[in-house]
Amino acid sequence: MLPFARVTIIGLGLIGSSLARAIRADMPTVRVTGYDADPAVRDTARRIDLCDDITDTAGASVTDADLVVLCVPVRAMGAAAAEIADDLPVDAIVSDVGSCKADVLAQLNAALPGRTIIPAHPVAGTENSGPEAGFATLFKGRWSIVTPPADADPIAVERVAELWRRVGADVEMMDPAHHDLVLAVTSHLPHLIAYTIVGTASDLENVTQSEVIKYSAGGFRDFTRIAASDPTMWRDVFLANKDAVLEMLQRFSEDLSALQRAIRWNDGDALFNLFTRTRAIRRSIIEQGQDDAKPDFGRSH
Ligand SMILES: NC(=O)C1=CN([C@@H]2O[C@H](COP(=O)(O)OP(=O)(O)OC[C@H]3O[C@@H](n4cnc5c(N)ncnc54)[C@H](O)[C@@H]3O)[C@@H](O)[C@H]2O)C=CC1
Ligand SMILES: O=C(O)C(=O)Cc1ccc(O)cc1
């Protein structure tokens, strides 16, 4: 049985539009309604026939929904939830796709007290944004991490998990705080490093911009893809997942200082041992068949 009959998607960018496309492709009888705060995005969504219906207000989009999925930047979740509070049917489930979970859950609880809130995070995406960047197969073979509150209704949790399975994702359950720590090191810190290194290269005085572009070898090119990711989305992730990111950044800085010291003192063994350990990690990811499948760091479609 389908987990939901009428799904509303709020925020029709990369993830919201991919979810709309995936639901229509994989569950064609489900009615998909969309809303975005940006009128230009709503126009585009209508032009490309993204949903069965696009409404001009948030409230109108949820009046007959049995699931509402918030697909807006993480620090906009509370405002988006507050806008639907008066029109949300009593038995509707509210979910989201935010890249960090504890802060978003707090925002949703504050905006929608007493409502059924089952957050999730599809660990799948690209550096692109907007309604035309989405695609129906984005979630296939990827993880979707569902982070229910401790007292969540198990039936509601299972319905949200089943939605993600239906669009091709593998589902994992996680505590929100643990999710935030894991994703801080596997996703948020790598983005911060990419933003930094591309910024550092572009600030150099003795190396021209055109030399950076012309001679960018594999490593730097990969960083430029990640550093092209949406500024609003990532500003919000770093501020909303501040504690976990600062904790991982502290550890990273200490490890970087150890490497700096090894180079300064010609400690080749230290360098060789670390590089051998990290190569083994890459190989075990490939052996587990997760290279290009999941998680999705470093892949564009
Ligand atoms: N981009 C990625 O690779 C991934 C993003 N995510 C999460 O998905 C969410 C959406 O990200 P993207 O789709 O990439 O962003 P996006 O920038 O492509 O789309 C976000 C959309 O939300 C709309 N919006 C902003 N505030 C709103 C509000 N209050 N009410 C209604 N609409 C509003 C914007 O107009 C925009 O169209 C974020 O929370 C992000 O952390 C999760 C997994 C991967
Ligand atoms: O484009 C990439 O490599 C990504 O890392 C995509 C991504 C961005 C944010 C997420 O929360 C999950 C996946």
From TrEMBL:
Domain of life per record: Bacteria
SUPFAM superfamilies registered for this protein in UniProt: 6-phosphogluconate dehydrogenase C-terminal domain-like (SSF48179), NAD(P)-binding Rossmann-fold domains (SSF51735)
Signal peptide interval: none
Pfam families: PDH_C (PF20463), PDH_N (PF02153)
Keyword Oxidoreductase belongs to the record: yes
Domain Prephenate/arogenate dehydrogenase: 5-293
InterPro entries, per database record: 6-PGluconate_DH-like_C_sf, NAD(P)-bd_dom_sf, PDH_C, PDH_N, Preph/Arog_dehydrog, Prephen_DH
UniProt keyword list: Oxidoreductase
Gene3D superfamilies: 6-phosphogluconate dehydrogenase C-terminal like domain, NAD(P)-binding Rossmann-like Domain
Protein name, UniProt field: Prephenate/arogenate dehydrogenase family protein
Organism: Sphingobium rhizovicinum
